Fold:
Amino acid sequence: MRTTIILNDKIYKALRIRAAESGETVSAVVEDAIKEQILEDLDDLQIVKERQNEPAIDFKAFVNELKADGLL
Structure:
């Protein structure tokens, strides 16, 4: 599929350099970056799912606990 994206000129220059150095096309470099981001997001979602039943910790209460322990 073809699409148009708008990039900052310096970012695009860096992208072209990266593609040239690796012997890949700009499209391949962009596609690889998007795939990596999607996989990272999937990992993050899995971690959230695994931890969904953990008890929530109130930030203010935790700070007070740190203060009481002399850590803050």
